[in-house]
Known about the structure:
This protein is mainly β. Helix content is 5%, strand content 13%. It has one helix spanning 67-78; strands at residues 12-14, 18-20, 27-29, 36-38, 51-55, 58-62, 93-94, 97-98, 104-105. The strands form 4 sheets. A 3-stranded mixed beta sheet has the order 5-6-9, with no helix packed on it. Strands 1-2 form a two-stranded antiparallel sheet. Strands 3-4 form a two-stranded antiparallel sheet. This is BspA family leucine-rich repeat surface protein. It holds the Pfam family DUF285.
Amino acid sequence: MTQAAAGNYASRSVSGSLVVAPPPPPVILDTNGVTLKYTSSSIPSGQSNPYIVEVSGISYAVMSDSQDSKTKIRAYADNFWQPINHSAIMPFVANGTIIPFSRIVTTLMTDMSHLFGTFSTNSLFTTQDTYDDLSTWDVSNVTNMYMMFRRTQYGGFNPNIVNWDVSNVIDMTGMFQSSVFNRNISQWTVTNVTAYSYFTSMSSLPKTSIPEKFRDTYG
């Protein structure tokens, strides 16, 4: 997994006695060693979405909290095999190289409903190594995962999202409905989830692999 800059920053002395800490880089690696986090509260005015930033020579695509972000991620996922100059790929190109899904930074996003679900082809999921680093995504501010992975049935779809911080999610209705995903997510913190019907309907997830709170609606 690509690593962003560390989260500790040395202070420096200014005018003899004043100590000022330099600003953090725009993207850092969380203390869990996996999650990529954007360190500002918004994308600077006038910047495109995604906002392309570079840390230690590595490019990252920071997504805004908008419908536009969902639209662009969906288009990228459904056309990832297209040439670099394809309209769906171009927003994720930096220095002549396509930014992989593992370096899409989602800290600002609050709505991921239908993000990958009900694709026309689900082409992203036909080859495992194109999506296996969704583990780096920061979903700590997401409140809506309604049908996020519904009908992801292609290419053995099974990204490692076990360590996602879903503690602020409210709606997980149909999140894995008819999906082949089967990792153990029983340790997810789902205290704030109030809508979770059809969470695993017709999916490959065993009952023991989902949060205990959801087991009353299993199947």
